[in-house]
Amino acid sequence: MPAALTRHRRRVLPLLAVVAALVAGQFAATRATAQSALLSQGRPTTASSTENAGTPASAATDGSTTTRWSSAFGDPQWLQVDLGATATVDRVSLVWEGAYATAFQVQTSADGAAWTTVHTTTGGTGGTQHLAVTGTGRYVRLLGTARATGYGYSLWEFQVYGTPGGPPPASTPISQYKQVAASSWEGGNAPAAALDGRTNSRWSSQFADDQWIRVDFGGVAVVNQVVLTWEGAYARGYRVELSNDATTWTQVYATTTGAGGVERLTVSGSGRYLRLFATTRATGYGVSLWELQVFGTVDSSATTPPLLSRPTRAPANTGRFALTAPADQAMVTGTRRPAFSWASSPGAVRYQVWLNLSRGDYDFAASGNLLDLYTKVAETTATTYTPTWDVADRWTYRWFVVAVDGAGATSASTIRTFSLYRPTLSTVDDGIRVVNGSRDLNRNGAVEPYEDWRQPVETRVNDLVGRMTIEEKAYQLFYNAQAFPRSGWHFGPAEARDLHTALLASSGTRLGIPFVSAGDTIAGYKTTYPLQSALAAAKNYPLAHKLGDVQRREQLEVGTRGVLGPLAEVGTKVLYPRIQEGNGESADVASAQVRALVTGLQGGPELNPASVLATVKHWPGEGAGGEAVIVFDEVTVKYHTAPFRAAMEAGAVNIMPGYAGSTLLDPGGPGAGDSAKILAYLRQNLGYTGLITTDWLPSGSWIGAANAGSDVMGGADPGAPGFSMAQFTAAVPAARIDDAVRRVLRIKFKLGVFENPYGDPVNGPYRFHKPEYAALANQASREAMTVLRNNGVLPLRLNPGDNVVVAGPRADDTAACCIWTSYFHQEYGSRTMYQAIRDRGAQAGVNVHKDTGPSPKLAVVAVGETSYTHATSWVKEQPYLPPDQLALIRDFKSRGIPVVVALVLPRPYVITEWHELADAIVVTYRGGEEMGPALASLLFGDYAPSGKLPWQLPRALSDVLRPGGTDVPADATEAWDLPYDLGATAAQRAEIRARIDAGQPLPTNYGNPLYPYGAGLTGW
């Protein structure tokens, strides 16, 4: 409700803690006999009214007794929850705040329109009421008819229990999270808030009539129902319209007697766009919607290519007949449906058309350039084919045709290449006009070659470089576009509005060159997924691709077009603090995982206008030593650089050298970022031609790094004390600067940022963290969970009323799941291990206590390190639990309480001292924002374990270090550059080296670890 409509908030009744404790106790008593499940928690909840923005309907079903729904001060009022499907309801619990109902009804409904009363009273007492009811329905409503106070109705919690059953919903909203526009919006109440599925966010217009909100379904939709959930400022008169072009509209519903609340409109029509046009307001304010839900079906065939085969290599013998159109190396700019044609092949009865489409189901474990994988998209008897679907922007499309004769014999044509680019030009009011279909970036009224998106990328690069001063070129190699708009790079992540403001500033520079924003969001942008070491425990590479794709989609929403990841490191040194960010101990796993993440982030195996630029790091592989020195030799360098080769095969065009130098590639030389020899190895031995971006070096190293061959000075601030751009341009040859700036500009043109540098800072954030995104993060965390030990205590077999204790420093630690700039999204429902186990226990009637509790049947002890980045939480030479954490395990065990250890394992630990004390050990790694819920589900047997250790675990510290040793090569007892060698003999290490040198498969069972690589129970 607009602020002016909100009444003066009364004083919240005191003693929240007492209420919470009382409620917990009463709920515990109830759980002891409960047989049904809690169905309402977290489900969509609406109400007749709310007192203010701080007391939304959703607060009554969020599981917290410190948040509440409160209504306006009048009778009657209602609160309604959508269970998502028909259920048999047997109990409703009401936890009233002081403003309760003396008279109310509980009702159920199949459709949210026709209601059946299953409980009624005129003698309500407030407090906590547990009501036994009998009914079925998808919707459950509390209808208050008489208040006990002069205020409204106020509930801490509204809980519905029962048994799911019945058919699923008839349909799901086709409008949710879609692109949206509106005539206006008021305050922070953006249009997209009406499409985000949340009942505590809303769109509200300016205070005038003739306001509208428009949804783009992305394809032609057949619409059958519209549901409007109004806030207090509703429309009395409005119409619903459909259109195919957002210009010509067909009315499918109209009224002048809108009643507000929840209106369910039966409509019939089709169109790509739907518009709600409000003509008459019911209040003096604007119009305001909690949710606009449109139901029906969307035809996505126009944007979905047919996938008639698996990704496949081209035939060995091609060139049997010629292709005619598109011309080889053509740039298609006039259509998204180019006509393909070819010469006839004698005897052919049909032809197959093969195109190297971007896909998410490559065999990521296979080597080879992913651009050389093709999909059959058509079969035809003609010698022409025109797609019925839009071909997406790509710079390297390759295609060929296979002729099939009457006997089934085949012959393949030549292979040709074309590109396709048809951008949607930015409409942001940034002072740049569109001239002859292109953005006039330098504002001179003419279209220069670099401004003309129809020109080849190299033509645009050459033209722009020729127009730039030496200083403008140098700025493109630096960060801090926030303060220096001519800089080529912006260090993120920034909030959407701040990023947009900086992008606007860059558009005002002389040549209008946009920057690229990149940050250390190595485990997701807003949806946080497990670190790469945890993903390596799951080995689900298509899922890793999907996670990269989620990050790409979220970043594109607000215009941040780069990421300083993924890591292409193999972690073979136990004491390397950043081993958690890498891919475990297997180079094969690392290679597959990097292929998957790069193609997910870049939207395919090539940088394109829908990509987020991946920055693969840290060259040449710091997992073989750390950030001080890399110790691989002429044999093991093959093992540690394999994931970088894989990244290049997946289309990576930005690589970050690390801080460490290499005793092999540049003996006695500097770190990789300013070592000419280490960078030359990348270009000469791996054939890399893309961008090289340094790690964060001090200003005194920037000139040396540029002269060594680095193109972009990572994080470098042109305004750093003691530094000037004049110094840089005087000390770095102009040819070296030109070489670097060409790589920078080439990437920017391929990203399409000259045509559309912006995201949507108003609506984009409402499309973050979609339910399907969180579900993928949850799946990844589940699949990573590794059960090292289980004496039969798992899955938990507890009775209603049993008590469980969750203890340990990581139990309620929101940071343990994540590092750096990946976050625990508490506002979206993520929960710590304790919170998640407590909530899952409640569904089973089990009481879960923190730290201590009465007569516990089981203790879950959460131990390990909290969040960190370059360093460890305790001394890195001590890869084992500290005494206080070990004491917790021993204490519960000494009291005869079964112990499940939930081990946050960011690096290989020595657990020999205590692992047999544990009845079960579950390794969570750093499992992302869904680590807690994933663990709770595992403990209660909702799924079976499948994760496998990505490293060996040492049997003793002596497998890693000499007694009293420190983290230096002379004190190491493991070979830092060899995998699977903890406790290995000299002969075993020689065999590992020989297999690496010969390119042979590498067994993982060397050495004498406590737990080998790949350890982990599968199933129960």
TrEMBL record:
Family under the similarity heading: Belongs to the glycosyl hydrolase 3 family.
Start and end residues of each stretch annotated as Disordered: 40-68
Protein name per Swiss-Prot or TrEMBL: beta-glucosidase
Enzyme superclass (EC): hydrolase
Organism (species): Saccharothrix lopnurensis
InterPro entries given in the database record: Cellulose_Degrad_GH3, FA58C, Galactose-bd-like_sf, GH, Glyco_hydro_3_C, Glyco_hydro_3_C_sf, Glyco_hydro_3_N, Glyco_hydro_3_N_sf
Catalysed reactions, as listed in the record: Hydrolysis of terminal, non-reducing beta-D-glucosyl residues with release of beta-D-glucose
Record-annotated F5/8 type C domain positions: 27-163, 165-297
Taxonomic lineage: Bacteria, Bacillati, Actinomycetota, Actinomycetes, Pseudonocardiales
